[in-house]
């Protein structure tokens, strides 16, 4: 992972060549010392003159498997309600859970597969996907099996997270501990047994799950060899960062609220802070203080939080523009946050996240640009000409 001032450093080769073999990066270098290839006949050549070749985006936080849009709540919010008020009246995550319980595994799979195609066309090459709209054993397992099938059938690199503690179902309103028991004691071992999760997650927040409840989940999962990535500090600071870092969580995500003590705690650990600026944009809540985090010497990753309630976009290009525009990150910092650090946050950094010999050949080729800054400056435009995943051209402007 890259921390602090290292995040500004994005090694770049002008006028470069790069060779892909069997889906992996075989070699690269400058055209100045390119010795030529004797036999070009079987090679596919892509001319990227005037363009940037970047590692593909690694989106380490999404809820890509979901039933349907929540555009009706979007309108409620435009009429003045807040995300929290909508949740309190049984909307929000509970609304998504109700819709999801009525859908079959096959329907969920097909909808998510299509969403992944869209993400891939916008330059994403690796994606973490959470459960959490099941809220009972049957539907959580259903979601996780959908993610397992996506891993097997979709070209993107996918990691799966069992979001065991996402919202409190109405029937557990007065006995939340029973719900935590259900997820931790009954469902988690089954998830582990079926090999359905790379990570576990909890929404640690006022009105959702306490630090103690999150800790129970993290510790039980750790005993089964499953690390945690958690939702903390979205609306309130209740001690989630300290608890997660103490328990060696892979990442702490959201952090729209972050105090000096949290920064100190993060400096003492190996947990990746993850900012989700599209969620801040959509909910009109504060942006994660990226400058405070990076200037303190910490690493930072950016992710979309793609979900129907707080970020109905999985477009990393928009996230990256928000990183620059709203969080005052430099273009090079944004690239590192969305590639190598994102890859670390989902534990795929040994195979993706940088242009390194031996890693998967998964890239973005931009449109012709005068500078890397233009990639994020022209926000809302599609600045990508081609996307290559595992050596295959999966998106081309010409087609
Ligand atoms: O990361 N904060 C909790 N979970 C999601 C929102 C899920 C939803 O509203 O459906 C998030 O923002
Ligand atoms: Fe989320």
Explain what this protein looks like in three dimensions.
- The protein has 399 residues and is α/β, with parallel strands linked by helices.
- The protein is 36% helix and 18% strand.
- An eight-stranded parallel beta sheet has the order 4-5-6-7-8-9-10-11. Strands 3-12-13-14 form a four-stranded antiparallel beta sheet, with no helix packed on it.
- The longest helix is centred in the middle third of the chain and has 18 residues, at 176-193.
- The protein is globular, with a radius of gyration of 21 Å.
- The mean pLDDT is 96.
- The protein binds N-(iminomethyl)-L-glutamic acid (NIG) and fe (iii) ion.
- Fe (iii) ion (FE) binds at residues 61, 63, 231, 305, 307.
Per-chain topology:
Blueprint: E1 16-21, E2 24-30, E3 53-55, E4 57-59, H1 71-78, H2 83-88, H3 93-101, H4 105-121, E5 124-130, H5 137-153, E6 157-165, H6 176-193, E7 199-204, H7 211-223, E8 229-232, H8 240-246, E9 251-254, H9 260-267, E10 272-275, H10 277-283, H11 290-295, E11 301-302, H12 316-325, H13 331-338, H14 340-345, E12 363-366, H15 373-377, E13 384-389, E14 392-396
Parallel strand pairs: 4-5, 5-6, 6-7, 7-8, 8-9, 9-10, 10-11
Antiparallel strand pairs: 1-2, 3-12, 12-13, 13-14
Helix pairs in contact: 4-5, 5-6, 6-7, 12-13
The structure holds N-(iminomethyl)-L-glutamic acid (NIG) and fe (iii) ion.
